[in-house]
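Q: What does the assembly look like in three dimensions?
Context provided by user:
Components: two
Sequences:
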Amino acid sequence: MNTSERNINYSYMMNQWGNINFKKVTNFNEWFMGDFDDSYYFQDWDKILRYHAGAGFKGIEIMIFTVPTMLNCFGSMKNFKEFANERGIEKISGMFSHHIGSEDKRNHERIFALERQAIDALADCDGVNLIIQPCGQYYGTGPLSDEQLRNAAACMNEVGRMAADKGLVASIHNEFWCAVNKYDHNKFIDLCDPRYVYYCLDTAQVSIMGIDILEFYKQYHERVQYFHVKDTTKKAATDAERFQAGAESADDGTRWFWEPGGGFVDFPGLWKLMKQYGHKGWVGIESDGTPNPLATMLLTKNYIDTVLDPIYC
Amino acid sequence: MKTALSFELVNMYSSLADNMYLNYKWYWENLTDWTAATGFDSISLTLVPNQFNVGRGGAPRCTLAINTKYGSAQGYLNFLNDRGIKNVSSFNISAQAVLADMFESGSKFEDLFKILYEHADDASDELAGLDGTFLNVSPTPAIGALKANIGDTPEAFAAFADQAADCINKIGEMTAKKGIRTCVTNEFWTLARGNYIDKFFEKLNKEFVGYTASTAMLKIAGVDPLEKIGQYFDNLGCVFLNDTSYVDTVDTYASTTPEYPQTGEQQRLYRDLGLGSIDFAAVYKLLKDKNFDGYVVLEPRYTTNVPRAVLRTRTFWTKLTKEV
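A: Here is the predicted structure of the complete assembly.
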């Protein structure tokens, strides 16, 4: 079944690869001889994109902080898109961005300037979704006052309008460690303008926050137009765990996120709801924290083929 | 002659297998243990300006991260001492890192030297608390990045180099008051690259600013490291030993990705120590004969395997000091 025949297609977030510095590495021996390791295989867009297409993922998603490197490598995001297309990647479905400091109006112009760059870059490669972390981390920022929450929502609304002007869709993406957290999560969504601001449901982040994602999806399915699919073994982390400094990169190395099927998230239940609500479009996969991106990618594809596709595809 | 291991053996901006761990505190604490286990008792760190993504992690990569995770410079020093590391001998900061941060911070290019000065002020405060000695400062962004901001004319580059030298002099005077010696570096992609350091160094106040040499950076710029280290011996702060076999036949130095050549038969700049073509025996002999009392910083820059490189570096240093 090709992508046009499916209701949902899968896009893989590239952050599991960190920073990809080369367009194409060509000399195997230069990297192999003397070191005898596999570094030749994991440093360039050429091969990494082909791994994704080879595993059956036809879309990718990118991080905003990689845009300067990509522009340096390819000259333009349009060139990058063409390079990816030639290797079997049909869609750059989205870009992840952030609104650090949005609770303070004085930071909004800086954030708008950043987002103008993000929107231009995403539009240039025919992307769709601008996925936005609404604030910085809870540590040092939260809890937010009502005024701070309104400021963060106003920032999101303005960026949503900017994205819409370019034909893009802006979505809230909430992290379990974000200043907008469990206690004001729904309030924040309700403060955002539904005409311009949608929601990207990150199945693990929201679960770790202590929210039942099936109930959440039932309530907000009209706002949820994108997903970040990942699993977790940690259900409802405590406030102390979520609000600690740098909570996502646990000091002791605790892994928060797993391949779908590797934790407790009820993906079959979610897919049944997606079918019920007739969700259509790209669904993002994230593998933050994996020590082996290739293994995780193949496990994920097998889970899609054997568990999710039979429910809804 | 004192030695330190450079933690810039880790490429923070890499796609290799361990990239996901680089923001974790445990990763750097393991590296600290390996460093002590291989007999090194001092480290050199590269810092970037404080920013959100680095600041929330556990890498000792900015003062915000260090102070958040360890409470203060003293807290981090206590940790290092407990693991067998005496001090952080030097910090390395760069105008290129300041420029790179501007994409997300929203800062303006015209404020680059103001931000670099503030970055140096913050870093030198922290370094003083870590029993450090040298603040190594790379004075200009990469030439490829500069072209996009100031144009591509000799006049523009000369005027910019003057501003950079003025900033370095101010940094040197400021850090001296804290007992920290500022040294200028000359990566092969900056306006002070290779022999251009000579003209640049003339503009600097030698009372407050010294020179830190880097063998691979000099070699890639087409300069004999031995010659340059000898020339600046009286001003030397640190000597970074890093290795390369790269020959810049495609003007990589002026590209937008100087450390990642996109064209040419060679694309790998750095090798673990002893696997490239630098004549380290000659460099070591010179330093030994002249009783160099600064830091020799061993740097298997951007290695493709960190624990292996730590072991290799000890082997390299043992052999070198035995043979010479």
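Follow-up: The domain at 3-308 of chain A is CATH 3.20.20.150 (TIM Barrel).
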